[in-house]
Amino acid sequence: MNQKTNQQRNYTLPIAIMFALFFMIAFVTGYQNPLGEVIRKMTGENAVLSQLGTLANFIAYAFMGYPAGKLLERSGYRMTALWAVTVGFIGVAITYLSGTIADNTHAVVVYLIGAFVAGFSMCMLNTVVNPMLNSLGKNQKQGNQLVQFGGSCNSLGATLAPVIVGGLIGGSANTIASANSVFYMAMAIFALAFVILYFSNLPEAEGFGTPRQAKENVKVSGALKYSNFRFGLLAIFCYVGIEVGVANWTMQYLTNSEQVAAHNDITVFSAAAIAGTVVGIYWLLMLVGRLLGGLVGGKVSSKAMLAVTSSVAIVLMILGIYLPETTVGFIGFDSNHMLFAPVQIPMNAILFIACGLCTSVMWGAIFNLSVQGLGKYTALASGLFMVMVCGGGILPTIQGFLANGSMLGSFWLPVALTAYLLVYALWLGKPDSSEPQQKEVLEEDGKPVEL
């Protein structure tokens, strides 16, 4: 039998599809933020309720992570992706229907159901794209490189979603129906993705969706025997809490800081407007960092990448906590007059948002280290990873309790979490030599391709 190696096969199309799905994950998740402003107006200017759409998306991961992994194990990459985009279409359709309900309370409830169902889809897509991109690499380093480039597409979607959706909705929107154009666009994206996936021939991991795999009865206990995976689960939980917590609480810090002000009389900024501009740069740095990570990922090990970025992030945050709150010049954006103007912000905030360059590559590096040697357990592992994304909701909330005492002091929590990532990179992420290491195999046209 003439078997082509993974180096010889052309996986350009599957990789492109995974990159596109990465973009969709961020875009559909990201449009909850501008829609939150609409919900705020519908709920009597309740700022807490305005965040429920995003919260519903995150909670869905805790419920769907494990089932998504089992679905991937039994149905394979292609079928799981098809189910994911179908569920995503249904979630957006439910959100669209909420705009047809006259009573605001009922409309918001249906909207949240739609956001929750869409969150199922995002979890399922994440379960597919991470292990598949990791598998399509020629080796561990290139697997990490592909995940980093995929993360760049994810960051691009996160950056564009608020801009595009905000422009389509408009600042005066006060009903969910005013966002119908957004829902039409999202449903069209899901429909197009379904068609492309349906007619695509994606390579599958050996045994996924076959009776052989089902007979092996892959169990969570089997995956948890691997120490690098066990510690990796906690690492992902910590990482998402760091990524979200640093962004959210830098915004809260700036919004409540007396040091934030317009630099001159060109325009008048509120502290919240300045905070939004600054934190937007955090996400832009995430995009830049992932692009750089993708460029060097084929040459730098995941261990080195995670160790270096964790160390730098710890230094940046400790400096941000201890430095005097002296102000420095920065650039703010006046959305009313569509112009940029100088503003003053504390140097501490700049150090915090600089962490975006570090956190940008952590997900791919942690995932790559965690699935080493898992073989047949990779699909299940990916699903369990998605469960741990709930750290993005839990840990920033804990940081909020700490912030009641000291806003800057609350950043000791992400410092401690990042320290764990450093320990994981240097010691805990290495597979135990006493544990059986399995090789992952892709199948294309029924022929195995060992990685």
Structural notes for this entry:
The protein has helices spanning 12-30, 32-42, 52-98, 104-136, 140-169, 180-198, 211-216, 220-223, 227-255, 271-296, 302-322, 347-353, 355-359, 362-370, 378-387, 391-403, 412-428, and strands at residues 204-205, 261-262, 327-334, 339-346, 441-444, 447-450. The protein starts with 11 loop residues before the first helix and ends with a strand. The model is unreliable at 1-8 and 211-215 (pLDDT under 50). The chain has 451 residues and is mainly α. Strand 3 (327-334) and strand 4 form a beta hairpin. The protein is 68% helix and 6% strand. The strands form two sheets. It has a three-stranded antiparallel β-sheet. It has a three-stranded antiparallel β-sheet with strand order 2-4-3.
List the helices and strands and how they pair.
Elements: H1 12-30, H2 32-42, H3 52-98, H4 104-136, H5 140-169, H6 180-198, E1 204-205, H7 211-216, H8 220-223, H9 227-255, E2 261-262, H10 271-296, H11 302-322, E3 327-334, E4 339-346, H12 347-353, H13 355-359, H14 362-370, H15 378-387, H16 391-403, H17 412-428, E5 441-444, E6 447-450
Antiparallel strand pairs: 1-5, 2-4, 3-4, 5-6
Helix pairs in contact: 1-4, 1-5, 1-6, 3-4, 3-6, 3-15, 4-5, 4-15, 5-10, 5-14, 9-10, 9-14, 9-16, 9-17, 11-12, 11-14, 11-17
Index terms:
451 residues; mainly alpha; three-stranded antiparallel sheet
Overall tally of domains = 1
Number of extended strands: 6
What is the CATH C level class, in words?
Answer: Mainly Alpha
Outline the low-pLDDT stretches: 1-8, 211-215
How would you classify the quaternary structure? single chain
Largest sheet: 3 strands, antiparallel
What is the N-to-C succession of helices and strands?
Answer: HHHHHHEHHHEHHEEHHHHHHEE
Please identify which CATH superfamily we are dealing with: MFS general substrate transporter like domains
Structural class: mainly alpha
Distance between the termini: 17 Å
Which fold name fills CATH's third level, the topology? Growth Hormone, Chain: A
Shape annotation: globular
Strand percentage: 5-15%
Q: Helix segment count?
A: 17
On the 0-100 scale, what is the average pLDDT?
Answer: 81
